C-alpha cells in the first residue's frame, strides 16, 4: 500500500472473535460502555468525531437518540449492527490519538511478521 494518508477514523481495522472494532480518534478516550442517557466528556468527544466524519449529531454531551442513530449509520457502513437499545460496548472501540496517519510507504504480505514500530517508514 502506497499513499500519503491512512484514514483510520470511523473504520474497522481489526476484529476480535469475529467482532469488528471501530477506530475512534477522539479527544478523550472512551472508557466505558455508552448507554442511553449517559453524559460526559467521552460522549461529547464521540459526538464531535461523528460530526467531523459527516454524520448529523449535535454536541450535547448526552448519549441520546441522535448520537445512537449517527453511530449506527457509521457502524452499518462497516457491516456492524449496534446491540439492542443502541449501547456501544467499550470492547467494540479502539481509541486512536489521531484521525489519520501520515505514511511514507507500507508493504506487507499475508504471513509476513510485523513487529511494533516496523510497519511504517
Helix-strand blueprint:
Blueprint: E1 5-7, E2 14-16, E3 19-24, H1 41-52, H2 65-77, E4 93-95, E5 100-102
Question: Any overview of this molecule?
Answer:
- With 121 residues, this protein is α+β, with helices and mostly antiparallel strands.
- The protein has one domain.
- It has helices spanning 41-52, 65-77; strands at residues 5-7, 14-16, 19-24, 93-95, 100-102.
- The radius of gyration is 15 Å and the shape is globular.
- The N and C termini lie close together (12 Å).
Features:
21% helix; two-stranded antiparallel sheet; 5 strands; 2 helices; alpha+beta; 121 residues
pLDDT < 50 stretches: 1-7
Widest beta sheet: strand line-up: 2-3-4
Please report the number of helical segments.
2
Q: Determine the fraction of residues in helical runs and give it as a percent range.
A: 10-25%
3D shape: globular
**How many separate domains make up the residues?**
1
Overall pLDDT:
82
Secondary-structure element order, N to C:
EEEHHEE
Distance between the termini: 12 Å
Strand content: 5-15%
Helix-strand makeup class: alpha+beta
Q: Main β-sheet, in a few words?
A: 3 strands, mixed
- Any idea what the radius of gyration is? 15 Å
- Please state the oligomeric state of the protein chains shown: single chain
Q: List how many beta strands DSSP finds.
A: 5
Brief overview, please?
The protein has 2 helices and 5 strands.
